[in-house]
């Protein structure tokens, strides 16, 4: 059984993220760690067309959840004029290396309570 209070970086991929605080907050500047194609949810863009490229910079606009398990961050990519829902593992803080390890380190640090 997964420990619900274990740091996010120590949890399996299917762990429930919402047991931890969000890795990002509205207003945080982030970079896309991956490229994203339209799955049909971005209006005015053909399905399969690239809506975000790896390294694009955006700002967290809002935080929601999916299936009561995962945080979904609404990222406003101002230069592209689009808002895309992404998970923390698909993002890194602006200026951080675009690696999965950087995403895990940020999520793990966010899970540590601040005094």
From TrEMBL:
Pfam families named among the record's database cross-references: NifZ
Keyword list, A-Z: Nitrogen fixation
Protein's recorded name: Nitrogen fixation protein NifZ
GO BP: nitrogen fixation
Family note: Belongs to the NifZ family.
Region (Disordered): 1-22
Entries under InterPro entries matching the protein: Nitrogenase_MoFe_mat_NifZ (IPR007415)
Domain of life assignment: Bacteria
């Amino acid at each position: 059984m997964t420990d619900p209070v274990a740091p996010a970086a120590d949890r399996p991929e299917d762990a429930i993220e919402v047991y931890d605080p969000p890795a990002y907050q509205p207003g945080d500047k982030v970079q896309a760690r991956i490229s994203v194609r339209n799955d049909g949810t971005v209006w005015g863009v053909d399905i399969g067309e690239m809506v975000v490229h790896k390294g694009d910079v955006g700002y967290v606009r809002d935080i929601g959840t999916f299936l009561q398990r995962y945080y979904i961050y609404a990222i406003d990519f101002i230069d592209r004029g689009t808002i895309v829902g992404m998970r923390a593992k698909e993002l890194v803080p602006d200026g951080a290396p675009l690696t999965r390890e950087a995403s895990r380190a940020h999520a793990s640090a966010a899970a540590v309570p601040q005094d």
